[in-house]
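Newbie here. two chains, one complex. Structure please?
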Amino acid sequence: DAGVTQSPTHLIKTRGQQVTLRCSPISGHKSVSWYQQVLGQGPQFIFQYYEKEERGRGNFPDRFSARQFPNYSSELNVNALLLGDSALYLCASSLHDRGPSPLHFGNGTRLTVT
Amino acid sequence: AQSVTQPDIHITVSEGASLELRCNYSYGATPYLFWYVQSPGQGLQLLLKYFSGDTLVQGIKGFEAEFKRSQSSFNLRKPSVHWSDAAEYFCAVYGGSQGNLIFGKGTKLSVKP
Protein backbone atom coordinates (compact mmCIF):
# COMPACT_ATOMS: atom_id res chain seq x y z
CA ASP A 1 0.00 0.00 0.00
CA ALA A 2 1.21 3.48 -0.81
CA GLY A 3 2.07 5.67 2.12
CA VAL A 4 1.44 9.38 2.44
CA THR A 5 2.70 11.13 -0.68
CA GLN A 6 3.68 14.77 -0.87
CA SER A 7 4.58 16.99 -3.78
CA PRO A 8 6.79 18.64 -4.69
CA THR A 9 9.75 17.29 -2.72
CA HIS A 10 11.69 20.54 -2.95
CA LEU A 11 10.69 24.09 -3.73
CA ILE A 12 12.51 27.40 -3.89
CA LYS A 13 10.50 30.61 -3.69
CA THR A 14 11.18 34.29 -3.29
CA ARG A 15 9.93 36.44 -0.44
CA GLY A 16 6.40 37.68 -1.07
CA GLN A 17 5.47 34.82 -3.35
CA GLN A 18 2.77 32.25 -2.73
CA VAL A 19 3.19 28.47 -2.57
CA THR A 20 0.90 25.44 -2.67
CA LEU A 21 1.94 22.09 -1.25
CA ARG A 22 0.04 18.89 -1.93
CA CYS A 23 -0.60 15.73 0.04
CA SER A 24 -2.32 12.42 -0.63
CA PRO A 25 -3.17 10.37 2.46
CA ILE A 26 -2.97 6.64 2.90
CA SER A 27 -5.95 4.94 1.31
CA GLY A 28 -8.80 4.79 3.83
CA HIS A 29 -7.46 7.60 5.99
CA LYS A 30 -9.86 10.51 6.25
CA SER A 31 -7.83 12.85 8.42
CA VAL A 32 -4.93 14.94 7.16
CA SER A 33 -2.66 17.10 9.29
CA TRP A 34 0.06 19.54 8.35
CA TYR A 35 3.20 20.24 10.38
CA GLN A 36 6.07 22.65 9.91
CA GLN A 37 9.55 21.50 10.88
CA VAL A 38 12.19 24.20 11.07
CA LEU A 39 15.79 23.00 11.02
CA GLY A 40 16.83 21.74 14.43
CA GLN A 41 13.31 21.68 15.84
CA GLY A 42 10.49 19.24 16.23
CA PRO A 43 7.43 19.47 13.99
CA GLN A 44 4.91 22.18 14.84
CA PHE A 45 1.20 21.66 14.20
CA ILE A 46 -0.39 23.84 11.53
CA PHE A 47 -3.76 22.31 10.58
CA GLN A 48 -5.90 19.24 10.83
CA TYR A 49 -8.67 18.43 8.37
CA TYR A 50 -11.27 15.70 8.51
CA GLU A 51 -14.02 15.11 5.99
CA LYS A 52 -13.13 18.43 4.33
CA GLU A 53 -13.62 20.41 7.54
CA GLU A 54 -10.94 22.14 9.56
CA ARG A 55 -10.77 20.42 12.94
CA GLY A 56 -7.76 22.15 14.40
CA ARG A 57 -5.39 25.00 13.81
CA GLY A 58 -2.04 25.72 15.37
CA ASN A 59 -0.48 29.08 16.17
CA PHE A 60 0.24 30.20 12.62
CA PRO A 61 -0.70 33.45 10.88
CA ASP A 62 -3.57 33.78 8.44
CA ARG A 63 -1.08 33.62 5.59
CA PHE A 64 -1.33 29.86 6.09
CA SER A 65 -4.44 28.15 4.79
CA ALA A 66 -5.40 24.65 3.78
CA ARG A 67 -8.22 22.63 2.37
CA GLN A 68 -9.19 19.00 1.95
CA PHE A 69 -10.83 17.57 -1.12
CA PRO A 70 -13.56 14.90 -1.45
CA ASN A 71 -10.88 12.27 -2.13
CA TYR A 72 -9.26 13.29 1.21
CA SER A 73 -6.18 14.77 -0.43
CA SER A 74 -5.12 18.15 0.86
CA GLU A 75 -3.35 21.34 -0.07
CA LEU A 76 -1.46 23.76 2.13
CA ASN A 77 -1.16 27.32 0.88
CA VAL A 78 1.19 29.94 2.19
CA ASN A 79 0.88 33.53 0.99
CA ALA A 80 3.32 36.41 1.20
CA LEU A 81 6.25 34.13 1.96
CA LEU A 82 8.81 35.21 4.53
CA LEU A 83 12.35 33.97 4.99
CA GLY A 84 11.18 32.36 8.23
CA ASP A 85 8.78 30.13 6.31
CA SER A 86 11.74 28.10 5.09
CA ALA A 87 11.18 24.66 6.55
CA LEU A 88 10.23 21.06 5.91
CA TYR A 89 6.46 20.80 5.61
CA LEU A 90 5.13 17.46 6.67
CA CYS A 91 1.76 15.99 5.91
CA ALA A 92 0.35 13.19 8.01
CA SER A 93 -2.75 11.09 7.72
CA SER A 94 -4.71 9.08 10.24
CA LEU A 95 -7.86 7.03 10.36
CA HIS A 96 -9.75 9.22 12.79
CA ASP A 97 -10.04 12.88 13.62
CA ARG A 98 -10.29 12.46 17.37
CA GLY A 99 -8.43 10.41 19.85
CA PRO A 100 -4.78 9.44 19.65
CA SER A 101 -4.88 7.79 16.28
CA PRO A 102 -1.24 7.38 15.21
CA LEU A 103 -0.09 9.74 12.49
CA HIS A 104 1.57 8.42 9.36
CA PHE A 105 3.89 10.99 7.84
CA GLY A 106 5.00 11.65 4.30
CA ASN A 107 8.58 12.53 3.43
CA GLY A 108 7.77 16.22 3.37
CA THR A 109 8.27 19.18 1.08
CA ARG A 110 11.43 21.17 1.65
CA LEU A 111 10.58 24.85 1.09
CA THR A 112 13.38 27.39 0.77
CA VAL A 113 12.48 31.07 0.70
CA THR A 114 15.16 33.43 -0.61
CA ALA B 1 0.05 23.72 28.59
CA GLN B 2 1.20 20.41 27.27
CA SER B 3 4.86 20.13 26.42
CA VAL B 4 7.58 17.61 25.72
CA THR B 5 11.21 17.95 26.71
CA GLN B 6 14.04 15.94 25.26
CA PRO B 7 17.06 16.97 27.35
CA ASP B 8 19.72 15.55 25.05
CA ILE B 9 20.26 17.32 21.74
CA HIS B 10 22.91 14.91 20.48
CA ILE B 11 24.03 11.50 21.70
CA THR B 12 26.84 9.34 20.35
CA VAL B 13 27.02 5.64 21.15
CA SER B 14 29.21 2.82 19.90
CA GLU B 15 27.69 0.16 17.71
CA GLY B 16 26.53 -2.70 19.89
CA ALA B 17 26.17 -0.54 22.98
CA SER B 18 22.87 0.05 24.71
CA LEU B 19 20.87 3.22 24.19
CA GLU B 20 18.49 5.28 26.26
CA LEU B 21 16.91 8.49 24.97
CA ARG B 22 15.15 10.64 27.53
CA CYS B 23 11.73 12.22 27.22
CA ASN B 24 9.75 14.16 29.81
CA TYR B 25 6.23 15.37 29.23
CA SER B 26 3.84 17.80 30.81
CA TYR B 27 0.21 16.83 30.50
CA GLY B 28 -2.69 17.07 32.92
CA ALA B 29 -4.52 13.87 32.13
CA THR B 30 -3.41 10.40 31.14
CA PRO B 31 -0.99 11.00 28.30
CA TYR B 32 -0.89 9.29 24.97
CA LEU B 33 2.79 9.11 24.07
CA PHE B 34 4.73 8.37 20.91
CA TRP B 35 8.26 7.96 19.68
CA TYR B 36 9.08 8.74 16.05
CA VAL B 37 12.33 8.39 14.13
CA GLN B 38 13.44 10.60 11.25
CA SER B 39 16.27 9.64 8.92
CA PRO B 40 17.94 12.42 6.91
CA GLY B 41 15.67 13.73 4.18
CA GLN B 42 12.81 11.56 5.31
CA GLY B 43 9.52 11.96 7.10
CA LEU B 44 8.79 10.59 10.54
CA GLN B 45 8.27 6.90 11.16
CA LEU B 46 6.34 5.69 14.19
CA LEU B 47 8.50 3.50 16.47
CA LEU B 48 6.01 2.85 19.25
CA LYS B 49 3.14 4.30 21.21
CA TYR B 50 1.73 4.19 24.71
CA PHE B 51 -1.99 4.57 25.29
CA SER B 52 -2.67 2.60 28.45
CA GLY B 53 -1.97 -0.70 30.16
CA ASP B 54 1.48 -2.20 30.39
CA THR B 55 3.95 0.59 31.01
CA LEU B 56 6.67 -1.15 28.99
CA VAL B 57 5.83 -0.99 25.30
CA GLN B 58 7.58 -2.72 22.47
CA GLY B 59 8.08 -1.13 19.10
CA ILE B 60 9.64 -1.78 15.76
CA LYS B 61 13.36 -2.24 15.09
CA GLY B 62 13.97 -3.63 18.57
CA PHE B 63 13.05 -0.45 20.43
CA GLU B 64 11.10 -0.29 23.66
CA ALA B 65 9.95 2.50 25.92
CA GLU B 66 8.85 2.68 29.53
CA PHE B 67 6.14 4.99 30.79
CA LYS B 68 6.75 6.28 34.31
CA ARG B 69 3.91 8.45 35.53
CA SER B 70 5.68 9.44 38.75
CA GLN B 71 8.58 10.85 36.76
CA SER B 72 6.51 12.13 33.80
CA SER B 73 8.91 10.26 31.58
CA PHE B 74 8.73 8.04 28.54
CA ASN B 75 12.30 7.00 27.79
CA LEU B 76 13.25 5.06 24.67
CA ARG B 77 15.66 2.17 24.93
CA LYS B 78 17.45 -0.33 22.75
CA PRO B 79 19.76 -3.06 24.08
CA SER B 80 22.19 -3.05 21.17
CA VAL B 81 22.47 -0.21 18.69
CA HIS B 82 23.14 -0.79 14.99
CA TRP B 83 24.77 1.72 12.65
CA SER B 84 21.46 2.01 10.80
CA ASP B 85 19.86 3.45 13.95
CA ALA B 86 21.68 6.75 13.39
CA ALA B 87 18.86 9.25 12.95
CA GLU B 88 16.88 11.86 14.85
CA TYR B 89 14.37 10.71 17.41
CA PHE B 90 11.29 12.62 18.47
CA CYS B 91 9.08 12.09 21.46
CA ALA B 92 5.50 13.38 21.22
CA VAL B 93 2.38 13.65 23.32
CA TYR B 94 -1.15 13.80 22.00
CA GLY B 95 -2.41 17.34 22.63
CA GLY B 96 -6.12 16.54 22.65
CA SER B 97 -8.12 19.68 21.94
CA GLN B 98 -6.81 20.20 18.42
CA GLY B 99 -6.23 16.56 17.68
CA ASN B 100 -2.56 17.24 17.23
CA LEU B 101 0.74 15.89 18.45
CA ILE B 102 3.14 18.04 20.46
CA PHE B 103 6.73 17.15 19.69
CA GLY B 104 9.95 17.57 21.54
CA LYS B 105 12.91 19.16 19.82
CA GLY B 106 14.45 15.82 19.06
CA THR B 107 17.62 13.93 19.92
CA LYS B 108 20.13 13.24 17.19
CA LEU B 109 21.75 9.83 17.52
CA SER B 110 25.18 9.16 16.05
CA VAL B 111 26.63 5.64 16.05
CA LYS B 112 30.38 5.03 16.18
CA PRO B 113 31.75 1.91 14.46
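Moderator note: The two ends of chain A are 37 Å apart (CA to CA). Chain A touches chain B through 27 residues (CB under 8 Å). Thread marked as resolved.
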